[in-house]
Design a protein that fits this description.
By secondary structure, the chain is an all-alpha fold. The chain is 78% helix and 0% strand. It contains 19 helices and no strands. It is globular. Bound molecules: phenylalanine. The site of phenylalanine has 15 residues, from helix 1, helix 2, helix 10 and helix 15.
Length: 454
């Protein structure tokens, strides 16, 4: 069977950027930066981007391009059975993430409709937990299906799996070519509107004000690395899969820099938009920005609805655009993460794309129904915590240590990338991967383990 390929270079970049830009950029980044030193966070952030994010992205692009397979097959071709498991591990992490990532997109989709007439009312917190999620008092209780979540969830999976069925070029590439430019335009409108609100400056001051003490705090560095991994979708086997569809003649390093900088620019923009809006809300209520800032689902689904309620004019439109941007950003990431295990299954078992989509995607969709029941939020918290803390960082750490020190493939891969790329990799690349990243990530894992045991 001939291997699928991207139609154009721009198509590949759109797809990689589509994978990177996701829910994490819009709601995760603003809050993480604010919590971890504000303006000063950019120092560890840039350090992590340049020494881990982009170098690992280059590594994964090179592996996929060179070995032309999904993650397990690529690692197998690189060094046989002793490397293949690493690919499977990343594939499993991806599978688990896709199961709950889809649920949040479903919420965003539903909230796009609520936004039209602010159906969430004034008490947006009670609305989210009691009315929309129908959470009982007992955590972890599962009960009936909550139809308000189930229907959009079914839609999210139908769209995603439908796109994957259409193939790499006609499905994933074509969808990203429409979704990503639309997302950028919508998001620019939101940000421009947000920074012209009363009180926007107050929000931006709170966001950018540097707390330089934070730089001395190791957990801030850990947060920067963790965020870069999640945000760039590296160490999930995704970028290996996507680059395995590159034509032979492709530039690797250039594409990685474009993807990395596009992703960071987008999240910087998101931080500006979100904090401008938070400043507006603080000014309306006469409180400090710190009093209205919230993390996680609270920011998008509790605080933003309140901001939309108080919005001066056209608030329905602003609300719809905001939740639509979350939905679009999420869908392009969900596609990439699902393609990762679809490709792995289809190669391992020699089945068609259709069967792999039906089996892998179908299974993920079925499991995600658990989250559409009462008590679903409880599973979501658990999954998010364990996967983010252990899954991703562990794959990232083991990936770099394996490639550089155990399998000793760094030079080989460097030559492969250099032969086809404009920007030439030098010693910094191997040093970042082989020394800096393992030290920081090793420290991170060790610290987390200790925290969890104590
Ligand atoms: N990079 C995506 C985001 O920022 C999240 C993601 C992680 C997507 C892993 C796919 C895989 O939201």
């Amino acid at each position: 069977m001939e291997r699928s390929q991207w139609g154009t270079r721009a198509g590949f970049i759109m797809a990689a950027v589509g994978s990177a830009i996701g829910l994490g950029n819009i709601w995760r980044f603003p809050y993480v930066a604010y919590e971890n030193g504000g303006g000063a966070f950019f120092i560890p952030y840039l350090f992590a981007l340049l020494t881990a994010g982009i170098p690992i992205l280059i590594l994964e692009f090179t592996i996929g391009h060179r070995y032309r397979g999904s993650a397990p097959l690529s690692f197998f071709r690189m060094s046989g059975k002793k490397a293949e498991w690493l690919g499977w591990w990343a594939v499993i992490v991806s599978f688990v993430i896709s199961v709950y990532y889809a649920v949040i997109i479903a919420w965003a989709m539903r909230y796009t409709i609520f936004a039209i007439n602010q159906a969430w009312g004034t008490d947006t917190e009670t609305f989210l937990f009691a009315d929309f999620l129908q959470l009982g008092d007992v955590p972890g209780q599962t009960g009936d299906i909550v139809w308000g979540i189930f229907i959009p969830l079914a839609l999210v999976w139908a769209i995603t799996l439908g796109i994957l069925l259409a193939g790499v070029k006609k499905g994933i590439e074509a969808a990203n070519r429409i979704f990503i430019p639309t997302l950028v335009v919508i998001f620019l409108i939101i940000v421009i509107r947000a920074v012209t609100l009363d009180g926007a400056m107050m929000g931006l001051n709170a966001f950018f004000e540097p707390n330089f003490d934070a730089i001395m705090d190791p957990s801030v560095w850990v947060a920067a690395y963790g965020h870069i991994f999640f945000s760039l979708s590296v160490a999930f086997a995704i970028m290996i899969t996507y680059s395995s569809y590159l034509p032979k003649k492709s530039d690797i390093t250039n594409n990685a820099f474009i993807t990395g900088f596009a992703n960071s620019s987008f999240e910087l923009l998101a931080g500006i938009g979100v904090f401008a809006a938070l400043g507006f809300m603080a000014a309306q209520s006469g409180v400090e920005v710190a009093d209205v800032a919230a993390g996680g689902v609270g920011l998008a689904f509790v605080v933003f609805p309140q901001i939309i309620n108080q919005f001066p004019g056209l608030n329905g439109l602003f609300g719809v655009l905001f939740f639509l941007s979350l939905t679009l950003a999420g869908l392009t990431s969900l596609m990439s993460i699902t393609e990762t295990y679809v490709a792995a299954i289809s190669e391992k078992f020699g089945t068609s794309r259709r069967k792999a989509v039906a089996f892998g995607g179908g299974l993920a969709a079925l499991i995600s129904i658990l989250f559409a029941t009462q008590g679903g939020l409880y599973f979501l918290d658990l999954a998010d915590y364990y996967i983010n803390q252990f899954g991703v960082a562990a794959v990232g750490l083991i990936e770099v240590v394996m490639v550089v020190w155990v399998l000793r493939k760094a030079d080989n891969l460097k030559n492969h990338a250099n032969a086809i790329s404009d920007i030439q990799l030098g010693g910094w690349w191997k040093f970042s991967l082989g020394v800096i990243t393992p030290i920081v990530l090793g420290y991170m894992m060790f610290g987390l383990l200790r925290l969890n045991i104590l």
